[in-house]
Design brief:
With 671 residues, the protein is α/β, with parallel strands linked by helices. It has 4 domains: 119 residues, Rossmann fold (3-Layer(aba) Sandwich); 142 residues, Toll/interleukin-1 receptor homology (TIR) domain (Rossmann fold), CATH 3.40.50.10140; 63 residues, no CATH class; 280 residues, Rossmann fold (3-Layer(aba) Sandwich), CATH 3.40.50. The chain is built from 22 helices and 21 strands. Strands 19-18-17-16-20-21 form a 6-stranded parallel sheet, sandwiched between helices. It has a 5-stranded parallel sheet with strand order 2-1-3-4-5. Helix 1 links the parallel strand 1 and strand 2. Helix 4 packs parallel to helix 8, helix 12 packs parallel to helix 13 and helix 21 packs antiparallel against helix 22. It is globular.
Length: 671
């Protein structure tokens, strides 16, 4: 298998004192360009997006040239300009071949930075604060398209010719269609949007000829969907031409009353609704343009990503790749007539971006013997009767920041992993507390969305909660049970026998406020992890806190050790930092990294020495760091992957590649 080389990675770089300004922009762009973690089973792009900043003083980790192209947005302010160490940090980036740097001025003093004397800045300090996120998103996404996804842009000088071309498709006799098209074109032509967009609006009475097709071939199409749109011949021709020429399309829905038939070729595309009771607002127009850029980037990035999958063997070389799910309009591209006048298929397999659509939607292709798959549903192996232990938790914010990620990266990983496991019939066992916006909630919501899509009542989640955690808020626990009763078994474990003598009452909550209480918590957590490890056939690990835990050792570390003792298959996704990354280092270097040693743990966890002393009095054999070190450096993963493949799994920050390797290993085990 050839090495996977992601087509594109995006980096946001900012000075620590600018975090309040830039972090919301990063989060907003991440939710649109990668995945909105609050929308289970959403049609996400999964564009790799990372950050480089510091919690305190200093400079961030260097940017590695992980992808074929790496686009770096540097947010520059006065504070960065006067910091020599950051100037040197940026200077190092300019020496890398696969990095393209794009400066963003947060204030006027940003132009004083000597590294960008002859380069255009994105002038963010001029943005209207009312529409800040939209304006940032449009400016950033346009540069992503210009530098990374459209080779023609790099041959053209800056200016209007360098803007993304839009083709406004609308009825010429529908008042709303003309009204919105004119408003959109005027907004682009008479504002800063002319730097990003070049809108073509054909006058009434035109003929559909080669000139129009020429415009469409170079454009993203905005189909302004009014009451009469689908019934107009020329509008139908424009949409068909866009699909024939493999162009992105977005629908702007502005129906007034009624549409008697929706043109079938104008479906299977994203849509945005605009209420045209009066003049479209600036917010309406920015929403349309943001959605248009988003679909343009998604469309062409999906094509590049699937081509790379094909190049490295994730996808069969004979398969046809599509940038949107298959539809009726694809029939003409995949069927032909042979010399015997027989209808034959040019391709036996179509591959389109995640997530999968309902099987009923593409049954018409299945009946023709054409297989339709997404990358991670290829070589689909059923995992029925297999129980997977999922060990995913946040590292500290310092650890996450150091590797250029945010908690959203691990949440997205947990959602994608959950979706692919339960869709293959697996059971998932997870030990998580019930808190809002925690991993448990995101995993549950993903499972709930799948259950609805699959129209099944099967319960595939086992969530273990140990005493006294479920006593912290018994009403909250009841709410969770009621809300997720259809998808999860909530298994409450009583205290272990070893600590009963220390517990005043099992009916009330006991805070981990002193050494004895910490001993009770850690003993109960260990018993819970033993029970879970015994019930799980396979374990998958990512992240994990090195400090601030409530057990005898970091929770994911304990679960890795227990899995190893039982000789169960183990997958370590080290590219997401935390304890898992440290265990991967131990395996690779054949030595214990300092952060997993007893001395480091005692130094960095208040009260940990006292807890160990209490354990040595009551259970002297329960924890031995020498044995832990020996077991980790000689860990038997037993996971169906080669040593080379495991090394990739240890380091890749790309979710798709990590999941591909996990399921490759599972398939090998099943055989």
């Amino acid at each position: 298998m050839a090495d996977f080389n992601s087509p594109l990675s995006i980096y946001f770089v900012w000075y620590p004192s600018d975090s309040d300004k830039v972090k919301p922009v990063f989060d907003y762009c991440y939710s649109l360009l990668s995945r909105d973690i609050n929308k289970p089973f959403s049609r996400s792009m999964n564009l790799p997006i990372y950050c480089r900043t510091c919690i305190h003083k200093g400079i961030p980790k260097d940017i590695e040239e992980l992808s074929q192209k790496n686009l770096v947005f540097i947010f520059i302010s006065r504070d960065l300009v006067v910091d020599d160490s950051w100037t040197e940090y940026i200077k190092k980036m300019t020496r890398l071949d696969k990095l393209t740097l794009i400066p963003i001025a947060l204030d006027k003093l940003a132009f004083k930075h000597t590294m960008f004397d002859y380069q255009n800045f994105i002038r963010a300090f001029e943005f209207d604060q009312t529409y800040l996120n939209d304006l940032f998103f449009i400016a950033i996404t346009h540069e992503i398209y210009r530098f990374s996804l459209n080779e023609e842009f790099q041959k053209i000088a800056n200016g209007k010719d360098n803007a993304l071309k839009l083709f406004l498709s609308h009825t010429k006799d529908g008042e709303n269609g003309i009204f919105l098209a004119k408003a959109l074109k005027n907004f682009i032509d008479n504002s800063s949007m002319r730097n990003f967009f070049d809108a073509t609006d054909i006058a009434p009475g035109y003929r559909f000829d080669d000139e129009i097709v020429g415009h469409i071939k170079q454009s993203t199409i905005i189909a302004i969907h009014t009451d009469s749109y689908s019934s107009r011949y020329w509008c139908q021709r424009e949409v068909i031409s866009a699909k024939d020429n493999d162009r992105p399309i977005i629908a702007v829905d502005s129906l007034e009353e009624f549409e008697d038939r929706r043109f079938p070729f104008a479906t299977n595309i994203p849509g945005i609704h605009i209420n045209l009771d009066g003049e479209p607002t600036q917010r309406d127009l920015l929403r349309i343009l943001s959605a248009t850029l988003l679909e343009t980037v998604r469309y062409f990035y999906a094509k590049l990503l699937l081509k790379e999958y094909k190049a490295v063997g994730f996808i069969d070389d004979r398969a046809e790749i599509l940038s949107r799910p298959p539809e009726v309009s694809d029939i003409d591209k995949i069927l032909s007539v042979n010399e015997k006048s027989e209808i034959i298929s040019k391709f036996k397999q179509l591959v389109y971006p995640e997530p999968p659509v309902y099987s009923e939607e593409i049954n018409f292709l299945s009946k023709l013997g054409i297989e339709c798959k997404t990358p991670l549903s290829l070589n689909f192996c059923l995992l029925t009767n297999k129980n997977f232990g999922i060990s995913i938790s946040d590292p500290s914010i310092e650890d996450v920041t150091e590797i250029g990620q945010t908690p959203a990266h691990l949440i997205q990983l947990s959602q994608d992993l959950t979706r692919h496991l339960i869709s293959r019939g697996a059971e998932i066992t997870y030990g998580g507390d019930l808190r809002d916006n925690g991993f448990t909630e995101f995993i549950f919501n993903e499972s709930l969305a799948y259950q609805t899509r699959a129209m099944t009542n099967e319960i595939q989640l086992n969530n273990y909660i140990v005493w006294p955690i479920y006593r912290a808020d018994s009403e909250k626990v009841k709410d969770w049970k009621a809300n997720f009763i259809s998808i999860a078994r909530m298994i409450e474990l009583p205290p272990s026998d070893d600590v009963l003598e220390f517990i005043p009452s099992t009916d009330s909550f006991l805070p981990p406020s002193n050494t004895q209480n910490l001993y009770i918590w850690s003993s109960n957590l260990t018993e819970m992890r033993k029970i879970m490890a015994n019930s799980c056939d396979i374990r998958i690990c990512a992240g994990g806190r090195l400090t601030g835990y409530k057990g005898i050792m970091p929770g994911i570390l304990e679960e890795i050790i227990l899995t190893n003792q039982m000789n169960r298959p183990l997958y370590l996704l080290g590219g997401f930092g935390g304890v898992t990354a440290s265990v991967c280092k131990a395996i690779q270097n054949k030595s214990m990294p300092r952060e997993l040693t007893k001395d480091w743990q005692v130094e960095n966890n208040a009260g940990y020495k006292e807890l160990l002393d209490l354990y040595s009095e009551r259970n002297p054999d329960i924890i031995d760091y020498n044995k832990i070190s020996e077991s980790l450096v000689n860990l038997n993963l037993n996971n169906g992957l080669t040593q080379e493949e495991n090394l990739k799994l240890f380091s890749t920050p790309f979710i798709d590649e990590a999941l591909y390797l996990v399921f490759r290993g599972l398939q090998n085990l099943s055989q």
